[in-house]
Amino acid sequence: MPIQPGSHPHQCVGGNTVHLATWSACIAPVPPQEPLVHDETRISLAAKPSLTRTTLGQLCAAPWASRSRPAATEPGLEPRISGGTASTAMQYLRPLRHPGDPGMKRFSWGAGGSAYQTEGAWDKDGKGMSIWDVFAHKKGKIFLNDTADHSCEGYYKFKDDITLMKDMKFNHYRFSISWPRIFPNGIKADHINEKGIKYYDDLINMLLDNNITPIVTLYHWDLPQVLQEKYGGWQNVSMVNYFNDFANLCFERFGDRVKYWITFNNPWSSAVEGYETGEHAPGLKLRGTGAYKAAHHIIKAHAKVWHTYDTQWRSKQKGLVGISLLADWGEPVDIINQRDIEAAERYVQFYMGWFATPIFNGDYPQVMKDYIGRKSAQQGLGTSRLPVFSSQEKSYIKGTCDFLGIGHFTTRYITQKNYPSGRGNSYFTDRDLVELVDPRWPDPGSEWLYSVPWGFRRLLNYIKTQYGNPMIYVTENGVSEKVQRCTDLCDDWRMQYFKDYINEMLKALKDGVNVKGYTAWSLLDKFEWDEGFSERFGLFYVDFLNKNKPRYPKASVQYYKRIISSNGFPNQREVQSVSQSQTLCTHLI
Ligand SMILES: CCCCCCCCCCCCC/C=C/[C@@H](O)[C@@H](N)CO[C@@H]1O[C@H](CO)[C@@H](O)[C@H](O)[C@H]1O
């Protein structure tokens, strides 16, 4: 799929029209070789008998979490900036068996996307409006007032996309079902849109015909607008039943073929960005309460859908139901300062633990109950702003996760900071911490996304110890670039990011973390929510200015393809030097 000179109207900074260049211009300096060291990073379980309540402080003492920098001259070790892990050991992944895992016989590699971000066809074939359709059409909400009305036109081009996936030999593809494409008015009683069902039927069938396992998300943020208008969306407990009806129909109509279901994608963003900061649809700024209430209903809805599957469909369909949580890592600024250690623990608990702890252990993290409860009392409120689960609800919610989906992008350094409760409520001030970044961390694209690979391994080990080593699918991991870089197809930084992050995941596998699959985020450049099309996460470049939305492979396609075909890193040389892959690079300048 070569890009033709002059065929690409995208403008670079400075107004130059993009044109082809030779690949040689794109070669970066060869990074220093990373020496192979022995397996001294393996975590010692014997040293950590308390697997369920391990604190972040204890984890920092684990051998794999060592932040001590090796001397530059020490044989076999290479110092890393940012106080990362001492070891740069390379791991060689072996094919893994999956006892009890329906369909996937080995470690699963794939990529993903979501309905609103990629499908387009926002008002076609009977689809109803979602909160994102309405939000994006309001002026001033999205960068450059972009909308995903057309986006990648995935609704029409999914066959082409499956051809790309087939060529890359994906084991799975992760996508989401648009609720208002199935129930245009949000609820089953009103109308089922058979054209929408047919679209997903065709997509699923074609994936399976090509031996690609569908991993299907039921909610990737596109709530039917009518439910927002009538009930206030996730502020209202009635969403629990409406979502359950939608999920139940999906199980009924697609569950004979879909065996991996994700109830919610990244509910943290739905709750915090949708109902606290208002940067995402539905754009509400209910500071200090809105996010907690939305999350409360989302957790209940997740549990209800898991029980629906468990009681009505599991014996027949033999699939799995999980949730995908955004889980960025928090590292104490000072690892011997107890206040920093606790602050970093709070960061992780207010992020992933907010959802994972009820689902695995039955209730919110104690630290959330303590902090929000105390601040609510100081503010003169009679009850905590964090809602409470009844004891029946706790037992109903506990254990509703067949696998845990993890969306991981980045890491923060965390230090303690007190926010006096008199200064107004907010999810952010409730945590009493500050997030910091190391300016030396690479940050090629999104403002919030720094490449900190060692945080990934720590996170995965933390999940293992906190939640009893659940089955994990990495459901999102990737990096963006800003459009104005003008080297869109020569994504050397993305290859570096994948190399480093996948390698840390493989180390975690060796540590004994139960990771079953990896999903590169994302297959295509697509609509990135409030950032519109200004950030590109795709393995494939999409020319959004061309109405046919052509896709062009970035250099990382070949790189990831080789990882997939080798079931990991094929050989040491490959791991050591990304520059080898840059010979595959066709790029724009
Ligand atoms: C003490 C007061 C402090 C106030 C600070 C307020 C700052 C709030 C800003 C929060 C912004 C967080 C941004 C985080 C973003 C990502 O974690 C999130 N977008 C990840 O979700 C996935 O992102 C992918 C890339 O955009 C996207 O393609 C995918 O669909 C999402 O699931």
TrEMBL record:
GO molecular function: beta-glucosidase activity; galactosylceramidase activity; glucosylceramidase activity
Reactions that this protein is recorded to catalyse: a beta-D-glucosyl-(1<->1')-N-acylsphing-4-enine + H2O = an N-acylsphing-4-enine + D-glucose; a beta-D-galactosyl-(1<->1')-N-acylsphing-4-enine + H2O = an N-acylsphing-4-enine + D-galactose; beta-D-glucosyl-(1<->1)-N-octadecanoylsphing-4-enine + H2O = N-octadecanoylsphing-4-enine + D-glucose; a beta-D-xylosyl-(1<->1')-N-acylsphing-4-enine + cholesterol = cholesteryl 3-beta-D-xyloside + an N-acylsphing-4-enine
Keyword field contains Methyltransferase: no
Pfam hit, one: Glyco_hydro_1
EC class (word): hydrolase
Top-level taxonomic group: Eukaryota
GO terms classed as biological process: carbohydrate catabolic process
InterPro entries hit by this protein: GH (IPR017853), GH_1_N_CS (IPR033132), Glyco_hydro_1 (IPR001360), Glyco_hydro_1_AS (IPR018120)
Active-site residues annotated for this sequence: E476 (nucleophile)
Keywords: Glycosidase, Hydrolase
PROSITE patterns: GLYCOSYL_HYDROL_F1_1, GLYCOSYL_HYDROL_F1_2
Enzyme Commission number: 3.2.1.21, 3.2.1.45, 3.2.1.46
Key word Hydrolase present: yes
Family from the record: Belongs to the glycosyl hydrolase 1 family. Klotho subfamily.
Name used for this protein in its record: Cytosolic beta-glucosidase
